[in-house]
Amino acid sequence: MKFLYIGVLLVSVASCRKLPSFIEVCHRNDPQINSCLQRNTEIIRPRLKNGIPEMHIPSFNPLVISQATLNGGDNFEATFKNIRIYGADNFVLDKFEVTMKEKFRFEIDIHFDRLRILSDYKINGRLLVLQLNGEGPADGNYTNVKAHLTTDGEHYQKNGKDHVRFEDKKIDLSIGKSQLYFDHILGDNDELNVQTNRIINENSQDLIKELTPVLTKVIGEFVFGIVNRIFERYSYDDLFPQ
Fold first, then answer.
1. For the whole model, what pTM was predicted?
2. Secretion signal: which residues (predicted)?
3. What domains can be seen in the chain, in order of their start residue?
């Protein structure tokens, strides 16, 4: 019985995690909870460049995503691997609202003045007016990137604690301008590669529409990656005590 008691005690201690001292506790019944969440976001933001080990949040400069794929049916397919995003930690939070009544919901408006995305690409098919079949390094610079994100959470039990997981995630994305370069987009012909990249950038707004699923994944990995890590590590009562 004594050993059972000790075991239960150890599990209880292990499942109780204290927020880092630099985090402000946001009480669930506080009518100003959204302001509290925004303040915490500003506290966390400058720490993202080097990561926050105590919260299991890795460095987000660069933010690394293993792969993203575009598939336009039989006419077009593109794969981007080893994706590295620079500048995501310099985001500006425009709105952060949480609803805890009927549903647990986050609603976030965020924008990035500038993002640089490096990757290794492989493209095969027709894009815009171009018939492409190339692979190599890709470099994309994007300015004035805005995202509206919503996600609904559901409660579940973990180690006897109430946690929240987020499944239904939605992102609306807009991009101001972009400057793109695909190395070896037409093989080893340097002149054709330069001309092709010029055409791509002259029609960058049309291309952005094609690349939106990849960029949406990038922004989603950044925002929801942070949210999911925090909510997986800390219980609902740890994050939002009464």
1. 0.83
2. 1-16
3. 64-236 (3.15.10.30)
